[in-house]
Structures are given as C-alpha cells and as structure tokens.
Amino acid sequence: MKDRGASGTVAVPYLGHSTGKLAVSFNERQDARDAEIQHVKMRPFLGIRNLASLASWRSPLFSIHPSLRHRDRAFSLVELIVVIGIIALIVAMLLPTLHRARRSADAVKCSAQLYQLGQGLFNYTARNAGWFPAWSGWHVVGDPLTGGDEPGLGWMEAIESAFAPATSSLYNCPTFPAEIPINYFLSARWSNSKSRYAIRANEIRLSTQFVLSGDCTATILYPEPFGTSGNASPDCDKDDAVEDCLRYEGVGGGVRIHPKGLNVLFADGHVATLSKYEKSEITYSPTELKSWDEVIVP
Q: How far apart are CA 207 and CA 64, in angstroms?
C-alpha cells in the first residue's frame, strides 16, 4: 500500500539521480510541469541573452530575400507613366463637369445681378414720380463727350444715386469675357413707339410678362472685335428702342449665353431664364402681349 504522511504527500520512486527516492509533493509536480511548458514556449528565444539581442531578433517568416534587400524603392519609369496617365484621364473626365458647373454658377450670379438692377430701377421710380430712367443714344461712362458720347447721361449714369456707379461690375454678366463690359439693356421699344424716352411704372399692366431688362446679345450694340458697332467704347445706355437686345441662339446672330438661355428681368422684379420667345410668357408692350417686332415704331 502507498504510505500517506501527515502532510498529505505520497512517496514516489524517482530513478533519475543517485540520491534514491525523493518525496515530491503534488504541488511541486505541477510546478515542474508548468516550467517545462514555459521552457517549450520560450525555446526560440533561448539564444537571446539581453534586450538588445531581443530587439534585433527577426523571425525567419519575415526575413527578406537577399536579392531584395538592396532594391531601390523609387517608382520605375513605367509605373510613373501609368500614374500620370490615370491622373490625366480623371482630369479629362472631370473638366467638362467642372465647366458646366461654373457656367451654371455664372448664370445664377447673373440672375442675382439683374434682380438687384430691378431693385435699383424701382428705387429710381420711387424718387422720380414713378418714371423709369430715360434712354437715348450711345453713351460712354465719364460724360461729357468722351469718344462718341452723345449729350446727356446714359440710363446707367442716371440711376447711380439709386443703385450703383455705371462702372460697377453689377452691370457685367459674369459669362461674358471681362473685356466686354456692360451687358444689360433697358426696355425702350414701347416708349419709342409712343415717341417718348421713358415709361411710367403705372402704365405697366402686364408686369409679370413685360420685359424690363436682361442679357444683351445684340452684337451691334458692342464695340469691335466682339461687336459690330463703329464706336470704340462700351455703351452705358444699352436699350432695345431700335435693336432687339434679346437675341436667342440661332436668331439674328444671337447666342446662348447661359446653359438654359438668356436671363430676363420682368417689371414685377422677378428674373427668368428663357431659351426662346414664348408669346404667353413675354411681352414688349405693357398692356398687351406683343413681340418686339409687333410693337411698331412710327
């Protein structure tokens, strides 16, 4: 039988040493087993003597092949050409989209400027017994008589106190080139048909359809080389008394200034973009629906 002592130990024969039998407790055997397991786990590190050698140790799984150790990490010429080609392709795909977005933004800015111009014209009428500014001939900012300028003031000069200086960029549609300033006109066809130079606000019955101003695309009202006028300086009194200023794409040399057409300011103050003439939407007479040609000048 096995002999159990008071300490709960068991006498086990041990033949590995010359000292004979050793009394080994159960806890000591467990500690020996744990030490052996730890020994097995740490076997790859047995040759490491200090922390410095531990930091420099590298597993064979992550070793670099000798042929790759001194390889240059810079791009090769082929890789560089491929990257440049991809970038160029992306830019080529984005440029049309960016161009359309810019043109749309310019159209919105132009519309906002025409709206402000409308407010300036209404301010002028409030100060002048309901009369809109008078139109006349070709006027150059900086009156009097400065290179083709006719006597008097252009309508843009006349409303300066109620709106902005005639040299203000508010008169310049952002879609037009910077060297072609003053791109808005004043409605004058109907007053010209009445042998007058202005119209009163209370004469306008069709305010939501009556054209008050808008983009001027009549090239005859611009100096060369963009236009065909013989005047050398920009006109600050553009009006449609004699020439139709709203010339749509494909009509009388007209162009599509904005992606969706031309911006038009109406007598009620709102601005709309039109791609063509629609009799139900636009009129040059304050009391009945008429096209520009139908308003007869004597």
A: 83
pLDDT classification of 73: cutoffs 50, 70, 90: low
Inter-CA distances, 241 with 258, 261, 293, 297, Å? 24, 22, 11, 9
With a CB cutoff of 8 Å and minimum separation 6, the contacts of 147 are 140, 231, 232, 233
What's the rounded Cα separation, in Å, for the pair 186 and 137?
12
Which pLDDT tens digit goes with each residue over 13-69? 444 444 444 444 556 666 666 766 665 555 554 554 454 454 454 555 445 555 555
3-class DSSP assignment, residue 154: coil
Identify the residue whose tokens are 């008589």: 145
Alpha helices per DSSP H over the chain: 26-41, 51-56, 77-127, 155-158, 189-193
**Structure tokens given for 64:** 């670099």
pLDDT digits (tens, 9 = 90+) for 176-220: 999 999 999 999 999 999 999 999 999 999 999 999 999 999 999
Q: Are strands 184-186 and 22-23 parallel, antiparallel or unpaired?
A: unpaired
Collapse the DSSP code of 53 into the 3-class scheme (helix H, G, I; strand E, B; otherwise coil) and give the result. Answer: helix
